[in-house]
What does this fold into?
Amino acid sequence: MKKPVDSALTRAAVLAIGEWIAAPDSVEKPARAALGDAVRRTARSLEADAPGHSVEVRVPPFVAVQCIEGPRHTRGTPPNVVETDPQTWLQLATGYLSWHEAVSSGRVDASGSRADEVAAWLPVIPLVSTGHNR
It folds into this structure.
């Protein structure tokens, strides 16, 4: 059984590197441990908010989670995959970047008929008013 997600710790991990998430070219990249903590916590929050096994969200090298209700995938390459880098993931997870912008610019690789369903669960930890919060 998975540990419950602590939303306060997730928010704290995100806020600790919030300046970099908002303006990555303006500040120094956070330490790997801080970056990994924020990525893992936000991805696991998505997994908890949208339980299921239909879509695999990958943010290498830090985490891969399964989410969205539907058929469980057990072997080989999953049919629905979302993959992105840590910076893009954290911008999506906090509302600094929209799903549409990320996919259309190639910052997110979303494959499979259900991959776009992840968008309905973003942002995970809203730091900006996006107009598309759940």
